[in-house]
Amino acid sequence: GAVLSFGRNDYSQLGFARASTSHIPVPSPIEIPGGHRIIQVSCGYHHSAMLSDAGVVLTCGRNDYGQCALDPAQHQTVAKATPIALAHSVVRVASGAYFCMALTDAQHLYTWGRNRHGQLGRDGNTDSHVPSAALVECASDAALVVDMAPGFHHAVVVVCDAAASSHARRSAGAQKAARGGSGSKSASPPRLPGPD
Q1: Torsion angle, CA of 102/146/42/74, rounded to 10 degrees?
Q2: Which own/partner contact pairs does 28-32 have at CB distance under 8 Å and 24+ positions apart?
Q3: Who's near 141: CB < 8 A, 6+ residues apart?
Q4: Cα–Cα distance between 45 and 28 in angstroms, integer?
Q5: Mind listing the pLDDT tens digit for each residue in 55-73?
Q6: What are phi and psi of 8, to 5 degrees?
Q7: Residues forming beta bridges with residue 79, ordered by sequence position
Q8: Is the pLDDT of residue 122 over 70?
Q9: How many CB atoms lie within 10 A of CB 53?
Q10: 60 neighbors 18 (Cβ within 8 angstroms)
């Protein structure tokens, strides 16, 4: 299906060059490059993130902190939906005010953008336009992210250990097979039990 956007567009956050219009009052289709089929969208303060069915993240809008995953010294705004460089397949994307989070199919969390308050989950508070793994830990060394939610300048994630995740995946596959499904990998991660 088409991706439609509308409202304020002063930083191209709607996927249209801001020179063309600063407000779009009627839902209008965004041009999506490369034949990507978008299955999820998320909006930050002045940027937008989209996820394709192939696990590719695309961004547009204001990029002053690297929230569109491009070097802000070269790209203060990103006028059109642009695929980002992330070497992992993504199953979910979410936007905070000036940062983004991506959950991969291996249940690892990648973050980029503003980090003044530590919202990227990395050591320190340096902004970064490069998607990098957040330092997610729990009782075991093999912590996997099962849910995430960004706020304005903060984020919350739910993690479990690899053993619980493996058990939940097998259970979900068995339940799907019992209902007549194939038990194959779905487009979104299964809901998994949290840490003990």
Answers
A1: -10
A2: 28/4, 29/2, 29/3, 29/4, 30/2, 30/3, 30/4, 30/5, 30/60, 30/80, 30/81, 31/80, 31/81, 32/3, 32/58, 32/81
A3: none
A4: 20
A5: 999 999 999 999 999 999 9
A6: -75, 135
A7: none
A8: yes
A9: 11
A10: no
- CB contact set of 92 (below 8 Å; sequence gap of 6+): 40, 51, 102, 103, 148, 188, 189
Tokens standing for residue 83: 């695929």
Residue entry with tokens 């705004």: 77
* Helix, strand, coil abundance in the chain, percent, nearest 5: 10, 40, 50
Q: What is the distance between the alpha carbons of residues 54 and 173, in angstroms, rounded to a whole number?
A: 21
**β-pair partners for 133:** 110
Confidence bin at 183 (pLDDT 50/70/90):
very low
Please give the full DSSP string across 119-156, using - where no structure is assigned: TT-SSS---EEEEEE-----SSS-EEEEEEEE-SS-EE
Residue 65 has which token pair? 């902190």
| CA R_g for the chain | 18
In this prediction, residue 184 carries a pLDDT of 39
What's the whole-model pTM score?
0.79
Return the structure tokens found at 32: 């999506």
